[in-house]
Design a protein that fits this description.
The protein is about 40% helix and about 20% strand. It is of the alpha+beta class. The protein has six domains: about 140 residues, 3-Layer(aba) Sandwich (Rossmann fold), CATH 3.40.50.20; about 150 residues, 2-Layer Sandwich (Dna Ligase, domain 1), CATH 3.30.1490; about 140 residues, D-amino Acid Aminotransferase, Chain A, domain 1 (2-Layer Sandwich), CATH 3.30.470; about 150 residues, Rossmann fold (3-Layer(aba) Sandwich); about 90 residues, Dna Ligase, domain 1, CATH 3.30.1490.20; about 150 residues, D-amino Acid Aminotransferase, Chain A, domain 1 (2-Layer Sandwich). The strands form seven sheets. Strands 25, 30, 31, 32, 33, 34 and 35 form a seven-stranded mixed β-sheet that branches. Strands 14, 15, 16, 17, 18 and 19 form a six-stranded antiparallel β-sheet that branches. Strands 4-3-2-1-5 form a five-stranded mixed β-sheet. A hairpin with a 5-residue loop joins strand 14 and strand 15. Helix 11 packs across helix 12 and helix 16 runs antiparallel to helix 17.
Length: about 900
C-alpha cells in the first residue's frame, strides 16, 4: 500500500504561478514506488479542486483557469485571472470549476488522501491558515506548523523577533498605509534620516521579489513610486497616458494588471472596483480626460511596508533541513551573483540570467558561521522540517539574515533542489525525505496520535523495501547543454526529461553534458549536484574546475544518515569525460535534449548511429534540413505549402557593399519584417524590424566579431540584460505574416508524435495546436519556456462554434502532417505557424518553422497538447523513446 499524497498549489497570492509550477514539479517527481499523487488546485476564491491531471501540465494558471469559454471570443484577447471576471457568487465560482475536476471540501479531502504536500505561497498558505485547517482534521502536511508559518509570512514580526533574539539587523522603518497617505513627505524625510541611501523598499508579506525596489540615489519621485509599488498602488498621470496610442494604452493596462510586474486585479479607483484590463483602459480614458492623475489600489494591497538599509555584501540563500533526530542542518549556502540590481522574478526563474554559486565563495570559517547562524534562526523561530533563509554577509564577516521562509520555490533548479543535490539527493529523493520528516514532525506535535504513527510506519516500511529492491531498468543517456544560445533552455529540457525518467519504474537516466564546438563534441557524465547547477555555463565551469569543497565534504558527513536512506550509490561521482563509443558500451538508448547546434543539425544523430545507439526524434537528413530555416521554407514552398516571402543576407556579400545589400532586401520585403538567424534555435534572436535603423542594428549584432554585444545596436533593439544574441554569417529575412482580409488570424504551435502500426507503417498522430499569445512583437524565450510567463490556449480558438472549430482544426492538422512528411520528420516535432480563416470558410496555414527537437521544459505547450490525447509527460517521453528504439532496428548501421 502506497501513501496517497495530495499536492496543493495555485492559491490567491501573487506567487500563484510559481506555486503552480512548483506543484507540478512535486507531482512529477514523487517516487512512484512510494506515493500516489493527487493534484489539488486552490483557485482564486480559495476553493479546493481535485484537478484532472491534464491541467497540471498547462504552462500557467491562466491557460486553464478561468476556462476558455469564460473568456472573450476574440483570439487576440490576452488571458486574465478569474478575478477579472467580476464579483462572482458561489454558483458562478462553481461553474468555473466544473471543467477542471471535482470541487471538494476539507472533509472529503481527508477521506481521499493520507498526506498534504503544500506547494502554496503567500496568504492562506504560508501563514498558518491551511496548516491550522489540516491540524484540526488530523491530516498531516509538509513543512512547519501554525506558529512558525505565521512568523514566516510577516517580515515585520520576523524582524522584531530576530532583533530580540540577538540577530543583526540593518537600519529600517515600518510604514503603515495610513501614515503614508496622510503625510508622504514626512515618511520620505524619515526614511532619509533613519535609514539613508541606498535603501530597499519591500512589501511585508510577499516573496519572489514581488513589490520590492532598490533605490541607489535620493529622489523623491523614485521613492514615491517604490513605496506605491510595495503598497500595490499605482498612479497614472494624464500627461503620460494621453501621450500613448491605443495599443500602448492596452499594454500599459496589462502591465498594471500583471500580478508579477504590476499590482494585479481587481483594482479600486475612488472606491469603485475595476476587474478587467479592458475596463481599466476605458475608465482611464474617461478619468484622465479631466484629471491630472488617478490613483489605483489593488484589492489585496499591503497594510504596511518596510524600508531598510541596503546591505553591501555577498547575498546568499540557505536551505536548512531537520534530520531524524530533530537536529537542524544547514545545507551549503548559495551565493547569488548580481550587481546592485534587483534579483527579480525574471532573474530568479529564467535559467542563465543569474549566477548561483554553491557554496558561497568565502573562507570556510565564514561559510560555517553563515550555516550556524541560519541553524540558530531556524531553531529560535521554531521552524520545522525545512526552511529557506536568505541573507547578506559583509566583508567584515557581519551577517544579516532576512526573509526566513517556511517554504521554498520548487522549480527544478530552485535553491530547494539545488542545495539538496550537493549532498547527493535528486529531487525525487529529497521530496521523499521531506514527506517522511514532515510525518515525523506531525507525530511529535500531535503527541503520537495513532493516525500519524501508523502512516509513518507504513512509509518507513515502503522506503526500506524500495531501497532493497533489485533494479532492472533501461539505461538512457540524456544529452543536454551544448553551445548554442539556447543551451540554458536545453539544460531545463534535459533536467525535466531526467526527472521524469528517474521517478519511473522503467528507466534509469544518466545525465550527459555536451560542450565543445562544431568540430569536436565533449561528453561528460555528470553527477546530480552538477546537473542541478543553475544554467549551462555553471555546469561547464563546474566540470572544468571540478573539486569538492571542504565544507561540502563536511555537510555530506553531517547528512550521512539522510543520504544512506534516500540517495543512490555514486550520485556524487566526479564528472567523467567519455566519447560516443564509451556511451554505447554503458547505456542502451539516448534522449537528445539539445537545441540548435549541436543536436538539431544531425551531427549528434550521425555519431550515435555510427556507434549503434537508438535516439529520439528525426534522423540525420531531416535534422540537417530543419536546422536551416531558409531551406525548410524553400522545401515547404516547393511542395505547395504556404510560407512567408523570404530571402537571405550573407555576411560576405554585406561586408563588400552594405548599402546595396540593404537596398536589395528593402526592394523585396517591406518594413516591418522579421529577421532571425538562419540556423539557430526557435527563439534565438528573432526580431520584428520596423525601419532601417533597427535593421542596421540587427545586422551589426548578428555579423559582429567576438561574443560581446555592441551597446548602441543592443539599445536600439531593446535587448534585455543578459539576453543571448548569437553572431552568425547569415540572416534570414521574412515578410511579416499578417491578417490581410481574413476574419480570424492567430499564431499557433502544433505538436505531433509518430508510431509504427502492426504492419510497420509510419503513423502520424497530430495534436490539437495551441494558440500562442505574445505580449511583444514576437514570442520570447520566457513566453515559450518559463513557467507562468507564456500564454497559450489549447486547443486553439479557431471559431466559436465547436463543429466549425474542429473543421478548421482538422484542416490545420492536415497541413501540419503534410509539412512533417515533406520534411521527413519522425518521432515527434513542434511546428510553428500562423492561421488565416476567411469568411468563405477557406483556411490558410502559413508555416514559420519546424523544430526537430522541440523544447521539453515543464512549461512547454507540447505537454498541454499531448495531454488532450491522454498522454502524461512521462507517457509522451516513453513513447518517444520507444519509437526511437523501434525505428533504430530499421536503420542499417
Amino acid at each position: 500500500m502506497k501513501l496517497k499524497v495530495g499536492i496543493f498549489f495555485g492559491g490567491v497570492s501573487k506567487e500563484r504561478e510559481i506555486s503552480f509550477a512548483g506543484g507540478r514539479t512535486v507531482y512529477d517527481n514523487l517516487n512512484k514506488d512510494l506515493f500516489d499523487a493527487v493534484p489539488y488546485f486552490v483557485d482564486s476564491f480559495n476553493n479546493f479542486i481535485e484537478l484532472n491531471w491534464e491541467f497540471v501540465y498547462k504552462g500557467s494558471v491562466r491557460d486553464f483557469y478561468p476556462p476558455v469559454n469564460f473568456l472573450p471570443d476574440s483570439p487576440g484577447e490576452f488571458q486574465v485571472y478569474a478575478e477579472s471576471l467580476g464579483e462572482l457568487n458561489s454558483f458562478k465560482q462553481e461553474e468555473l470549476t466544473l471543467p477542471l475536476g471535482t470541487k471538494v471540501n476539507i472533509e472529503q479531502i481527508k477521506n481521499k488522501i493520507d498526506f498534504a504536500f503544500l506547494a502554496l505561497h503567500g496568504p492562506y498558505a504560508e501563514d498558518g491558515t491551511i496548516q491550522g485547517l489540516f491540524d484540526f482534521y488530523n491530516l498531516p502536511y509538509s513543512g512547519s506548523g501554525i506558529l512558525p508559518s505565521a512568523i514566516g509570512i510577516d517580515k515585520v514580526v520576523q524582524k522584531q523577533l530576530m532583533i530580540n533574539a540577538g540577530f543583526n539587523s540593518p537600519k529600517f522603518i515600518v510604514v503603515n498605509k495610513t501614515e503614508w497617505i496622510n503625510d508622504l513627505g514626512s515618511v520620505y524625510e524619515r526614511a532619509k534620516l533613519e535609514v539613508g541611501y541606498p535603501l530597499v523598499v519591500k512589501a511585508s508579506t510577499q516573496g519572489s521579489s514581488i513589490g520590492v525596489s532598490i533605490l541607489q540615489q535620493d529622489s523623491f519621485e523614485d521613492f514615491k513610486n517604490a513605496v506605491e509599488k510595495s503598497f500595490f498602488n499605482f498612479s497614472v498621470k494624464s500627461t503620460e497616458w494621453n501621450a500613448l496610442n491605443e495599443h500602448d494604452r492596452n499594454q500599459r493596462a496589462r502591465i498594471i494588471a500583471d500580478i508579477r510586474e504590476g499590482i494585479g486585479m481587481p483594482l479600486l479607483l475612488d472606491g469603485k472596483a475595476i476587474y478587467h484590463p479592458d475596463d481599466l483602459v476605458r475608465i482611464l480614458n474617461k478619468e484622465l480626460s479631466g484629471k491630472d492623475e488617478v490613483k489605483l489600489q489593488s484589492f489585496d494591497s499591503e497594510s504596511r511596508i518596510i524600508i531598510e538599509q541596503f546591505i553591501e555584501g555577498k547575498e546568499f540563500s540557505c536551505i536548512v533541513v531537520q534530520d531524524e533526530n530533530n537536529k537542524a542542518i544547514a545545507l551549503p549556502p548559495t551565493e547569488i551573483r548580481k550587481g546592485k540590481e534587483l534579483f527579480d522574478y525574471r532573474s530568479k526563474y529564467l535559467p542563465g540570467l543569474s549566477r548561483k554559486i554553491t557554496p558561497i565563495q568565502l573562507p570556510i570559517e565564514k561559510i560555517e558561521l553563515i550555516r550556524k547562524t541560519c541553524e540558530k534562526l531556524f531553531n529560535d523561530l521554531h521552524f520545522g522540517v525545512y526552511a529557506r533563509i536568505d541573507g547578506f554577509i559583509k566583508e567584515d564577516g557581519t551577517i544579516f539574515l532576512n526573509d526566513p521562509n517556511t517554504t521554498s520555490g520548487m522549480m527544478p533548479s530552485s535553491f530547494f533542489f539545488h542545495q539538496a543535490a550537493e549532498i547527493g539527493l535528486n529531487p525525487s529523493q529529497f521530496l521523499s525525505f521531506i514527506i517522511r520528516t514532515s510525518l515525523a514532525q506531525r507525530t511529535i506535535e500531535h503527541k503520537y496520535h495513532p493516525v500519524y504513527v501508523n502512516l509513518l510506519k507504513l512509509l518507513d516500511d515502503n522506503i526500506e523495501k524500495a531501497r532493497l529492491a533489485v533494479s532492472n531498468k533501461i539505461k538512457v543517456a540524456v544529452l543536454l547543454g551544448g553551445y548554442s544560445s539556447e543551451r540554458h533552455i536545453s539544460v531545463e529540457s534535459g533536467r525535466n526529461i531526467y526527472e521524469k525518467l528517474s521517478s519511473s519504474s522503467k528507466y534509469t537516466p544518466v545525465p550527459v553534458f555536451v560542450s565543445g564546438n562544431n568540430s569536436v563534441h565533449q561528453l561528460h557524465v555528470i553527477p546530480i549536484n552538477t546537473l542541478l547547477k543553475d544554467n549551462a555555463d555553471d555546469i561547464k565551469e563546474k566540470i572544468e574546475n571540478w573539486h569538492v569543497h571542504p565544507i561540502i565534504h563536511q555537510i555530506i558527513n553531517e547528512c550521512r544518515a539522510i543520504t544512506a536512506k534516500y540517495a543512490t550509490a555514486n550520485s556524487l561521482a566526479a564528472p567523467r569525460l567519455i566519447n560516443y563509443n564509451d556511451l554505447a558500451s554503458e547505456i542502451e538508448a539516448v534522449f537528445i535534449a539539445l537545441h540548435g547546434r549541436p543536436g538539431e543539425d544531425g551531427v549528434v544523430q550521425s555519431n550515435l548511429e555510427k556507434v549503434g545507439l537508438p535516439y529520439n526524434g528525426s534522423g540525420v537528413t531531416s535534422s540537417q534540413i530543419t536546422i536551416n530555416k531558409y531551406q525548410t521554407n524553400e522545401i515547404l514552398k516547393q511542395n505547395g505549402l504556404l510560407v512567408a516571402d523570404h530571402l537571405m543576407l550573407d555576411k560576405s556579400a554585406y561586408l563588400l557593399n552594405p548599402n546595396t545589400e540593404i537596398e536589395k532586401v528593402e526592394s523585396v520585403i517591406k518594413y516591418p519584417f522579421i529577421a532571425k538567424p538562419v540556423d539557430d534555435g526557435c527563439s534565438s534572436a528573432v526580431k520584428k524590424i520596423k525601419n532601417r535603423k533597427e535593421f542596421e542594428a540587427f545586422i551589426s549584432l548578428m555579423f559582429r566579431d567576438g561574443e560581446a554585444l555592441l551597446p548602441e545596436p543592443a539599445e536600439v533593439l531593446n535587448i534585455k540584460p543578459k539576453e543571448e544574441f548569437p553572431n552568425k554569417s547569415s540572416i534570414l529575412i521574412e515578410e511579416l505574416i499578417s491578417k490581410r482580409d481574413a476574419i480570424h488570424f492567430l499564431e499557433i504551435t502544433g505538436g505531433m508524435l509518430t508510431r509504427f502500426n502492426e504492419n510497420g507503417e509510419l503513423i502520424y498522430e497530430v495534436f490539437e495546436a495551441s494558440e500562442a499569445l505574445s505580449e511583444g512583437d514576437v514570442l520570447s524565450l520566457e513566453e515559450k519556456f518559463l513557467a507562468g510567463q507564456g500564454q497559450n490556449i489549447t486547443p486553439a480558438r479557431y471559431a466559436k462554434d465547436s463543429k466549425e472549430r474542429q473543421r478548421i482544426s482538422d484542416c490545420v492538422k492536415s497541413d501540419l502532417e503534410k509539412a512533417a512528411k515533406v520534411l521527413s520528420i519522425v518521432g515527434y516535432t513542434r511546428i510553428d505557424a500562423f492561421v488565416r480563416i476567411f469568411a468563405n470558410g477557406k483556411v490558410e496555414t502559413i508555416f514559420v518553422e519546424a523544430n526537430s527537437l522541440p523544447g521539453m521544459t515543464p512549461a512547454t505547450c507540447i505537454f498541454h497538447q499531448c495531454a488532450i490525447n491522454g498522454y502524461k509527460p512521462y507517457d509522451f517521453i516513453d513513447r518517444i523513446l520507444d519509437f526511437g528504439m523501434k525505428r533504430f532496428n530499421k536503420i542499417p548501421v
